[in-house]
Amino acid sequence: MSGPVAHGLVDRDGRLVEAERPLDELNTRAGGALGQPFAVPQVAVLARLAQRLGIPVSRHVVAADGPDEIELWVRADPVEQGVRLAISGWRVRAPWTPPADTARRDRDLLVLDADWSWETDATLRLTAIGEGAVRFGIDAKKLLGKPLDALMTPKPDDNGAMPMFAVLLAHGPFDDQPATVRASGATMMLSARPRLDTAGNFAGYVGAARAVSAPAAPIGGDDALTEAFGARLDRALRAPLGRIIANADSINAQTDGPIRQDYADYAADIASAGRHLMTLVDDLVDLQAIERPDFVVAAEPVDLADVGRRAAGLLNVRAAERGVRIDKPQDIDTAPAIGEFKRVLQILVNLIGNAVRYSPDGGMVWVRTHRDRDTAVIIVADQGKGIAKQEHSRIFEKFERVDPTEPGGSGLGLYIARRLARAMGGDLTVDSAPGEGARFMLTLPAQIA
Question: What domain range is 167 assigned to?
Answer without folding.
Answer: 101-211
